[in-house]
Structure prediction request, 119 residues.
Amino acid sequence: MSDSNLSSADQQPYFKRHIFFCLNERKNGEDSCAQHQAQAGFDRCKQLARQAELSGPGQVRVNKAGCLDRCAAGPVAVVYPEGVWYTFVDASDIDDIVNEHLIGGKVVERLLVPPHVGH
Prediction:
């Protein structure tokens, strides 16, 4: 059967959600997520996802990303398929994103990146 014969109802997403963490470091000295503990946030999220057994097909994938072009809000992470953009400061923020959004399906309002904040 070719791909064109499959309806979208026949295809389940490989992952229920992806969370991408910007780990970009600008070499020109401009502010970037890497300068604001982005790697620590990624590492914490990955650890919590494993502990909660969220990792694997049909569940959640925690990904590294290059520049996501929202530097002014950095550090940032985005959850798909919802397209929810977060900023975070410490481990407790990551805990809330994992527990409330990735596990509970509820947006963490206090950590949302305002829509007008970009590069």
Q: What stands out?
A: Residues 12-111 form a domain with the Glutaredoxin fold (CATH 3.40.30.10).
